[in-house]
Design a protein that fits this description.
Blueprint: H1 2-14, H2 17-28, H3 32-50, H4 57-82, H5 90-106, H6 111-134, H7 140-159, H8 169-176, E1 178-179, E2 182-183, H9 184-202, H10 204-214, H11 216-221, H12 226-252, H13 263-273, H14 285-305, H15 309-335
Antiparallel strand pairs: 1-2
Helix pairs in contact: 3-14, 4-9, 4-12, 4-13, 4-14, 5-6, 5-7, 5-12, 6-7, 6-12, 8-12, 9-10, 10-12, 13-14
Length: 338
């Protein structure tokens, strides 16, 4: 009974992340997510004034298509981060899921069945990662780093080292379609984002994830099912990576074993820049989307301006370091540490 009461009390405290952000807003002027959004809008304004092609319909649609796939992966990665974990395998899962789905389709399986089997693959991968973390006690960094290598190798084995062609035209038609002038990929991302936002902000599971990331021992003592939360977080991460892999496959009209290289780093960067803490307990779907939009804008701007991609990598690294530094200042100010 006492554990139940503590559980309810902890759940109530997790219902009000807005209060914490409001205190940050009053003390520092703006939370990290708002600062990143302001930086993104500033970059849009600069690009609109310096180039004639940035605000064209074709370029904006390209940005939306790219940010859609990046955001879906980042949404999933956010879940392990919230519980003080990490998932470095998602880029390879993107490649493996695309190759597996493409192989099934070329073998004659109906599209819904091929998609269903691929999603089950995501559930299996996420369960394997969670089992290794929770049961075997392997650090998440290590087991998902191993997965990064293993699943990439699996993608090459399944495809026999080559891209898989001959996909149904319905897939490319969907990936290139626009509804109300907005790409279908963006609508797909929006639906996924809304579902995951609801889970994090309106369900007990979401509040428990934040509680676990904030204080693992207190969450355990409050009676939270740690095993269920760990499995849920890693399954969400892998399944969203599989969805992104299939969408990327549809967009490119091939299943490529080289797809998704370094996507895990982009996803983690988007989550962190969007306000998630690598120490767990804080992060949001909206903030993650804002982070992904900033990086998609930087990539698009560099392409339009003819800037070397190496400089883009430098800018991304500096930006991540700056945001993490500001985040640490927030925490130090809040705790009274100088």
């Amino acid at each position: 009974m006492a554990a139940h009461d503590a559980n309810l009390s902890l759940g109530r405290r997790m219902k009000a992340p807005a209060a914490t952000r409001t205190r940050h807003l009053r003390k520092w002027g703006l939370p990290v997510e708002t600062l990143v959004l302001g930086l993104t809008l500033a970059l849009w304004i600069v690009m609109a004034l310096t180039t004639s092609t940035f605000l064209t319909a074709n370029n904006l649609v390209n940005i939306l298509r790219q940010v859609s796939i990046d955001s879906i992966i980042a949404f999933g990665v956010l879940f392990p981060i919230l519980i003080r974990g990490i998932d470095l395998s998602v880029g390879s899962v993107v490649a493996l899921s695309g190759v597996v789905c493409a192989t099934l389709l070329t073998a004659g399986l109906p599209i819904p069945l091929a998609i269903g089997v691929t999603l089950l693959l995501g559930v299996a991968i996420g369960s394997l990662n969670a089992f290794a973390v929770y049961r075997l006690g392997i650090p998440a960094f290590i087991i998902t780093l191993a997965g990064l290598q293993a699943f990439r190798g699996g993608a090459f084995l399944v495809s026999d080292g080559t891209s898989v062609f001959g996909l149904p035209k319905a897939l490319s038609t969907f990936a290139r379609a626009e509804w109300l002038g907005i790409p279908s990929l963006f609508w797909s991302m929006l639906v996924i984002g809304l579902v995951l936002h609801f889970i994090l902000s309106r369900t007990r599971t979401g509040r428990y994830m934040v509680a676990m990331g904030s204080n693992h021992e207190s969450a355990r003592r409050a009676g939270i099912n740690i095993k269920r939360i760990v499995f849920f977080a890693y399954i969400i991460s892998s399944v969203t990576a599989c969805i992104a892999g299939m969408l990327l496959m549809a967009r490119m009209s091939i299943g490529s074993p080289t797809a998704g290289v370094a996507y895990e780093l982009n996803a983690i960067a988007a989550a962190v820049v969007g306000g998630a803490s690598l120490f767990g307990g804080r992060g949001s779907v909206l903030g993650t989307f804002i982070g992904a939009l900033l990086f998609a804008t930087i990539a698009n701007a560099a392409n339009l301006l003819g800037i070397d991609s190496f400089w883009q990598m430098v800018a991304t690294g500096v930006l991540i370091a700056a945001v993490v530094y500001v985040d640490n200042l927030h925490k130090r100010r809040q705790s009274g540490v100088k």
